[in-house]
Amino acid sequence: MVTHRDILNFINEFAPYEDAEKWDPTGPTLGWPDDKTEGVILSLDLTSDAYQLAHTNKFNLIITHHPFIFSPLKQFVADNYEQSLLLKLASRRISVISCHTNLDVATEGVAISFLQAALDPENYDPDIKILVPRETNSTVGHGRIVMLKKEQRLSNILNQIENNLNTIVQVNIDQNLSVKKVAFTPGAFDESWIPQLVNRNVDLLITGEIKHHVGVMLKERGIAMFAAGHGASEQTVIPLLKSKLISKFSKIPFVENPGITYNQLRSE
Length: 268
Known about the structure:
Number of domains: 2
Largest sheet: 6 strands, mixed
CATH architecture of the largest domain: 3-Layer(aba) Sandwich
Number of strands: 11
Order of helices and strands: HEEHEHEHHEEHEEHEHEHHE
CATH class of the largest domain: Alpha Beta
Strand content: 15-25%
Mean pLDDT: 94
Radius of gyration: 19 Å
Distance between the termini: 49 Å
């Protein structure tokens, strides 16, 4: 029998929860750790769609990237949408686990999945560096840096990302420029990482989302920026997570929730 605790412990092997940021409430959100796992929904967020998938398939575990509860709850009332969702989950004994910043910084985590999904592998050197390594453990950290095998125009990379991720990309600079060194930071880019980009001579930052003034700061420092969308950049980790879990728990069914589509390219 595979329990929810068994799955949590396995995630902890490749994305240790001790590596999560101190502010991050990652890990079990709601649950019955010793229940037998009937099936798992993998979702970027805990949503009504994720709940419905679990209910329809008679699964009793949802694993998300983003935590559902960031601030302490003082009450549970049915007329509050988020709280009512938790009440529904509890009434059907559906556990929820998140793996957030621990998966962001993991050796094979969100940054790697974003990089591998966005760029065709034959276009970059396989020697991948960490953009912001942890002081206590240089094998983990935020972001990744790759060298392209040859200089490419920004317009070519832009088309590749939009096609591979089916997303609309925001840019901050002339698309006719050519670049060689590229950094990837899925999700929201942290302004404090700019010195790392400058010191390591990064030509192009490919991220999920970025504040306007930070995009300007990058342009003024000669760094091109592509923002592919928070969801589009991080949804890439769901298939990777599924693959890892299936390799360990092959008899348990895993179903992906496709997530929200606010940043997808519109069909003609």
